[in-house]
Task: structure prediction
Amino acid sequence: MNTEKKWFSLNLGRKKESASTCGCGKSGGCGSHEAAPTPEKDGFDQVFDVPMSRRSAFKKLTASLMIGAGAVHSSCSVTAGDETKEKAQIDWEEQFKGNYKLMNDEEKKATVDRLVRSYELRKGDKINMSSKNAEPDVLFGYAFNISKCQGYMNCVSACVEENNQDRNSEMQYIRIHELKDGQGLKFDEADDNYYHEVPAEGHFYLGTQCFHCDNPPCIEVCPVQATWREDDGLVVVDYDWCVGCRYCMAACPYDGRRFNWSTPEVPEEEVNKNQHYLGNRLRKKGVMEKCTFCVQRSRAGKNPACVDACPTGARVFGNLLDPNSTIRWVIENKKVFRLKEDLGTEPKFWYYMD
Amino acid sequence: MATFKVFRSLVKDSFNVITQGSLRYHLWMGALTLVMLIGMYCYSIQLEEGLSVTGMHDRVSWGLYISNFTFLVGVAAAAVMLVMPTYVLKDMDFKQAVLIGEGLAVAALIMCLAFVVADMGGPSVLWHMIPGIGVFNFPNSMLTWDVIVLNGYLFINITVPLYILFRHYQGKEAKKNVYVPGALLSVFWAVGIHLVTAFLYQGLQARPFWNNALLGPRFLASAFAAGPALIIIILAIIRSSTDFKIPDKTIRKISIIVTVAAQINLIMLGSELFKEFYAPTHHSESAYYLFFGLHGKNALVPWIWTSICLNLIATTILTIHIFRRNNILLYFACFILFIAIWVDKGFGLIIPGFIPGPYGKIAEYTPTGIEIAVTLGIWALGAFIFTILAKTAIAIETGRLRYKETAVVKKDHYENTVLDTDKA
Result:
């Protein structure tokens, strides 16, 4: 097993889940990953695993202070209808649920069921939400062909549609940088917000998004562990646990994170109803979100929407642990590089040229 | 039980003290209340609409709130510069000022916490941060360290003066072996809150403008200039508007602290400027943006040069003995130094960290009216709290507010009102 880390970190008497951390760069040899053993429970887990007593005590304490006051009223009221009661009950449980990262499979399923039911009660429409966990022996990686990209931005619009991003603020996870030929990667003179016919003469195009770093600075700084690295390498956010401090945004060297400055709005008919808890489910205001390599698709064996939407084939996605995957072929046979490697973030996003 | 009774009486008596005063006092408190109410109204709009009502956006994701938070941590830490000489070095010239300094620390810390809460996207789920109930990402996240040190410092700065005042209220001397350990702890703790807050920024490899070993030490130097400068101004106001005796000697000594700290701060500024501009690299772009503007974007340029000019003038006045010994000039220098460091540690530090962005994009930041109103509201809250604390402390220290043993005397004492000066 490859437990050697490529960056320095203090081991402050806590068990790092080094077994699940894949140090595979472009070199092979990561086929030897074993399924990560269940990490030992730390203090937080133990607090969380105390069935309900402590949390229910807290619920009672804050009942009069928090928005739950209204919910209590309607859920206890005899005049309110069953649906109102149920809605209030769901809101109540959602407000005081734990961190998804620390939930067991049953709890994950329970919160997903609540969210599906809540959507049904509010909009009268069924959605399909998954809580599928990472599969063993999977580590997702991405490669981007600079020679092929023509800057059409089909990936950007496919991403927005797939991931239910706020239409008002035109939030986009992907930025396509239009760089000048002969200047190399001079990002500060690039245009990441162009509006003209592409490909423009004398320019080339390079896309950035969340790179799903293997050593992500954003997850270290989060004060509440609302963002973390899943075992298949995806860096995800629990939108319901995030407190909105935006420290992760300051810590990301790749401009990979977005914040919901106001309530995100997606027209009812445009909502993608095929959702994942950690992925494209509808967000609320005041929380972070980011590219998840379309977790709802990638964990179902499909490519992220941007990969499928690209008309030039500039985007390659796959399992880094599968020696026969395209992504492995690209990394092993092309001259690949990554952005800002000196920061030690180990992005799982490679660039290459033909 | 007896202690509890005395405490209840203290609370009652201090309530009387703070609700009575001159017309000027009432106008002051009324004005602060008005500003606070406007701030609260604006905050309610922010709660309703989201942080989109502020000037912040995805490219500059921290603004006025975090700037003020950073600056106020420094003001809070500065109390240590008065605590240390009094309790540790036993220099009694500082004795009068130390309670005021601690009161200022409490007010500054409450403002800090208010600014952090105002900046949160989801204040209703802040319980996620409470250790035990939520998930506290300690020790990985510097923000959790900050939560610990700020609340710990707040606790120390409430309990130590409370104990001293509580003893004085009963006409007893405060026991040294009780409060000196707390005071000693607060000395180290004050350095801690500032360094930890600096590390919050310093630890981000994504932001070269912050990722700089001088950030923490410069934080300390500027804090030990701005905080005591504010204390001098406040002591001057207290001296002229109450009968609390503050000898000139105290102010002289504090002014020397301000002077030395301001000089060190300037040396560090010089070192930073040298590093950024002698051999500029890609990482100097934020400094270029701050001092000269970049690609025609120069919103911060007038601010930072104003700050540097004020800083230089103030340090010059403070450095020359005859000027520093002139009270009017001293107050003026302290005032402009305070403003200079507020600009420098607020706008001048936080915003350029985001500009240019990770890929060189320059998107500027301008605070909105709502953001400014909330900020002013929080400052008013701080001033309000400080006034209450200082007024009670002064009443006890001057001997006007004392615990009356028997109920009969107590009744009499209510009728005559606490502020009856000829009793003193």
